[in-house]
């Protein structure tokens, strides 16, 4: 496995995803505050949820980074890299809205006393820097050396690189959700 190529792909995917999310903060307030007919989340609530969930995922990524770096002792990183295949197929459904039922913990749902929108935007920008920083610590493939179980959609164990991809895929899922809100809003005001 060419780790430099994977890291470049992950950096670009994270950067592109966060840039797409960031654009939603510039949408008109009426659109961002629109509650869809199914009583789902407003775009503002989706943005808050992305930041909140990223917070918890980045805790796992940070711990995984620390443990992966510690695991370099006594492990044959070259052998790990030689046989590793990045599981795009396994993680594809994470980025697709309505692909499966997603049961999220209550502490990851947006709430009435959430951060103000400018603070959420800054939080997301900081989270991108944080995620890229973890990748920058794992430039030789060390991210393969520690796995954490992910229960969502019965994915199983993910290494640190896969967790970073999962984080971006999850945000992509919410991009679709916000676009659905926009489409419904546009039809309602037409």
From TrEMBL:
<protein>
    <submittedName>
        <fullName>DinB family protein</fullName>
    </submittedName>
</protein>
<dbReference type="Pfam" id="PF12867">
    <property type="entry name" value="DinB_2"/>
</dbReference>
<feature type="domain" description="DinB-like">
    <location>
        <begin position="28"/>
        <end position="178"/>
    </location>
</feature>
<dbReference type="InterPro" id="IPR024775">
    <property type="entry name" value="DinB-like"/>
</dbReference>
<dbReference type="InterPro" id="IPR034660">
    <property type="entry name" value="DinB/YfiT-like"/>
</dbReference>
């Amino acid at each position: 496995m060419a780790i430099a190529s994977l890291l470049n792909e992950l950096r670009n995917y994270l950067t592109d995803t966060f840039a797409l999310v960031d654009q939603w903060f510039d949408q008109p307030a009426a659109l961002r505050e629109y509650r869809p007919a199914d009583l789902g989340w407003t775009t503002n609530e989706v943005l808050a949820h992305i930041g909140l969930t990223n917070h918890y995922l980045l805790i796992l990524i940070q711990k995984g980074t620390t443990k992966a770096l510690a695991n370099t002792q006594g492990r044959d990183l070259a052998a790990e890299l030689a046989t590793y295949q990045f599981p795009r197929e396994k993680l594809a459904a994470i980025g697709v809205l309505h692909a499966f039922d997603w049961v999220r913990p209550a502490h990851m749902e947006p709430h009435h006393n959430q951060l103000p929108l400018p603070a959420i935007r800054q939080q997301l920008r900081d989270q991108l820097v944080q995620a890229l920083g973890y990748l920058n610590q794992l430039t030789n493939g060390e991210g393969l050396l520690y796995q954490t179980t992910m229960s969502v959609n019965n994915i199983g164990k993910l290494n640190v690189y896969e967790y970073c991809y999962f984080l971006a895929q999850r945000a992509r899922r919410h991009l679709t959700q916000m676009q659905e809100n926009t489409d419904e809003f546009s039809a309602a005001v037409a």
